[in-house]
Design goal:
Layout: E1 4-7, H1 13-21, E2 25-28, H2 34-40, E3 44-49, H3 56-60, E4 67-70, H4 80-85, E5 89-91, H5 98-114, H6 116-124, H7 130-133, E6 143-147, H8 151-160, E7 166-170, E8 180-182, H9 185-191, E9 194-197, H10 211-216, E10 222-225, H11 234-242, E11 248-251, E12 271-273, H12 282-300
């Protein structure tokens, strides 16, 4: 019987071709709802998911499951311990999206500096003179602090190298380079004009940026979060933005996604909000599909995956 690969969401054709060329049946589902996935993926040997929660209950509904592939870097929504207990590999695509996320991060830094969103909106609101009371800011000569200096953080620093900014970073596992100084965590918040969050979502990083950190930041500093919403204490951020403790924020991720329009962040003028689009490009989607499906094929052919996030006993 041909093994099934279940895709709750469709993926680029290049990824599906890798699976069909390897002799597998591809089943494209109708969405990410828990019960939908349990029903549609009941016969799956592998599943390729996005950011939706995937726990032991769902795994148990897929008794043939051998590998859960995550289309992206973060795997916090997957119960990795539950997968390991069941002998299921969890893999991700860490190399596919670093450059794209870094591009988006720098784009959002520039957008909040130049007030691009509000100025563009003002034209649609027939308010040409909005610009007079809301001038932008140059980033030349400013200090950019990067929290987390892994693949994405390093790419951000590289892409900022032509903007004449000083780049500092905090990462307990990184060392200073010719262009980036590794500093302690408090120095990032106290001295950076832009604090860029590129941390993984782990128990020790969850809600690790809150009122204390915002009070350390300069009143004219900005926070940019392209990592995970759970890292920020959202209510503390709202308070800091309302009280002008910081100048503004650019956020691509939130504790609740999709972000409800009733969330207080939506009503603030000193924020740029985007719907988790950091790696949402044609090229990145194709690279993620290739990397994820290649690891699915490896596992189902009895080989070691290249990007496993858990270890299974032989």
């Amino acid at each position: 019987m041909t093994e099934q690969i279940y895709l709750p969401d469709d993926i680029p054709a290049v990824g599906k071709k890798i699976l069909t060329d390897a002799g597998f049946e591809v089943v494209v589902g109708t969405g990410r709802a828990r019960e939908t996935m349990k029903t549609e993926g009941a016969n799956a040997s592998a599943v390729l998911i996005g950011t939706q929660p995937f726990d032991g209950d769902i795994m148990d509904a897929m008794p043939n499951l051998k590998v859960i592939a995550r289309n992206g870097v973060g795997y916090d929504a997957v119960d990795v311990d539950a997968a390991t207990e069941r002998g299921i590999y969890v893999v991700n695509t860490p190399k596919a999206l670093s450059g794209s996320v870094a591009e988006t991060a720098v784009s959002e830094l520039l957008a909040i500096s130049k007030n691009l969103y509000q100025d563009a909106k003002a034209i649609h609101d027939a308010n040409w003179n909005y610009r007079k009371s809301q001038p932008g800011r140059d980033i030349e000569g400013k200090t950019v602090g990067i929290l987390g200096f892994g693949r994405i953080g390093q790419q951000v620093a590289k892409k900022l190298s032509g903007f004449d900014v000083k780049v500092i970073a905090y990462d307990p596992f990184a060392k200073s380079t010719d262009t980036v100084s590794i500093v302690d965590r408090d120095t990032i918040f106290k001295t950076a004009d832009y604090v860029m969050v590129h941390l993984p979502a782990l128990p020790e990083t969850e809600h690790s940026i809150g009122a204390a950190e915002f009070k350390m930041m300069k009143n004219d500093a900005y926070l940019i979060n392209m990592a995970r919403g759970v890292i920020i204490v959202e209510s503390d951020l709202v308070a800091a933005l309302k009280n002008n403790e910081i100048a503004g924020a650019a956020l691509d991720v939130f504790e609740e996604e999709p972000l409800p329009v009733t969330n207080p962040l939506v009503s603030l003028e000193n924020v740029l909000l985007t719907p988790h689009i950091a790696s949402n490009t044609i090229e990145t989607k194709a690279r993620m599909a290739v990397d994820a499906t290649n690891d699915i094929v490896r596992v189902l052919k009895g080989e070691q995956p290249e990007a496993a996030v858990n270890h299974l006993e032989a």
